[in-house]
């Protein structure tokens, strides 16, 4: 099992619950160097993180709160933002507070350093990793790729179907899979769209003559692009009072693999009843891919991703 999972993946596991259940078991975990998780209840005025553990107090001192805090390369917002969220840690000391009550001293920094050295530094382009959405910006989606270590999926790497904001596709806290593309200095490069299937894989879910649901993603002077799946959109003729983001019902007029086009007739548009993004379907279940070809076999177009060498 991958022991360097994104934060939140292990907190409810029986293994984690058992390891933090008593001081004796916490001592065993300290001896083994086991990475555990708990929920932060308070970030105090000195930016120490207090972690909820059964039967005892536990604290992550500020300088142990994240890689880069001691050096000043990571801002304290990385600590403040963890309140009421799970954090990973290793136990570094079991002691008592001034009143004689048991106190566990924890380090998130050590867990992150081990994650970087033993897991992320060994990743190859094309490796598929678990991730968890931490926050969304207009330019992309930030994800935790292990022990709270952040990385970015640029907005144009989220899906083939264009979106106006990552919130159109993801929600904070959502668990994802991502593809490791390579490194740019210390920065880890990620992509996501390749996991959502090729043109043929997505088009195979539809047949001419069907009326299906979609989302309006773009209104151009020559037509309206309606997303059928995150990696597939079709073109409908212009219709008044249609805006980006509306949900739609569309009639599939034709599917043209050689041109990679789906012709649609817009039946109706309406405001979404459920604003949450739809659940994602991943076509790739393996842990690695070397190459992804989006274009259909019948098309002369080329759209591919190669992961055989570092970016």
From TrEMBL:
Domain S1 motif: 126-193, 209-238
Record GO biological process: translation
InterPro entries: NA-bd_OB-fold, Ribos_protein_bS1-like, S1_domain
Ranges in a coiled coil: none
Pfam families: S1
Keyword Calcium attached: no
Family: Belongs to the bacterial ribosomal protein bS1 family.
Name the UniProt record assigns to this protein: Ribosomal protein S1
Source species: Ruminococcus champanellensis (strain DSM 18848 / JCM 17042 / KCTC 15320 / 18P13)
């Amino acid at each position: 099992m991958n022991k360097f999972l994104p934060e939140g993946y292990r907190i409810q596991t029986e293994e984690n619950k058992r390891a933090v259940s008593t001081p004796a078991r916490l001592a065993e975990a300290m001896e083994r160097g086991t990475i555990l998780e708990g929920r932060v209840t308070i970030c105090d005025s000195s930016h120490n993180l207090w972690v909820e553990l059964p039967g005892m107090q536990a604290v992550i001192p500020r300088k142990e709160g994240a890689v880069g805090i001691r050096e000043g390369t990571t801002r304290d917002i990385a600590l403040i933002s963890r309140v009421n969220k799970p954090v990973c840690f290793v136990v570094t000391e079991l002691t008592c507070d001034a009143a004689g009550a048991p106190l566990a001293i924890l380090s998130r920094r050590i867990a992150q350093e081990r994650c970087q050295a033993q897991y992320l530094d060994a990743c190859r382009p094309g490796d598929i990793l678990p991730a968890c959405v931490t926050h969304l910006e207009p330019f992309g989606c930030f994800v935790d790729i292990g022990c709270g270590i952040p990385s970015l999926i640029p907005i144009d790497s989220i899906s083939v179907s264009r979106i106006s904001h990552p919130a159109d596709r993801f929600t904070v806290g959502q668990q994802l899979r991502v593809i490791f593309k390579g490194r740019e200095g210390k920065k880890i490069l990620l992509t996501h769209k390749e996991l959502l299937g090729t043109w043929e894989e997505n088009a195979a879910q539809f047949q001419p003559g069907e009326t299906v649901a979609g989302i309006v993603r773009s209104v151009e002077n020559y037509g309206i692009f309606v997303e059928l799946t995150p990696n597939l959109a079709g073109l409908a003729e212009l219709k008044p009072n249609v805006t980006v983001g509306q949900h739609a019902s569309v009639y599939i007029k034709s599917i043209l693999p050689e041109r990679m086009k789906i012709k649609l007739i817009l039946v109706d548009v309406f405001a979404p009843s459920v604003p949450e993004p739809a659940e994602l379907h991943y076509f790739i279940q393996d842990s690695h891919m070397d190459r992804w070809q989006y274009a259909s076999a019948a098309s002369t177009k080329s759209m591919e991703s190669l992961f055989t060498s570092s970016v």
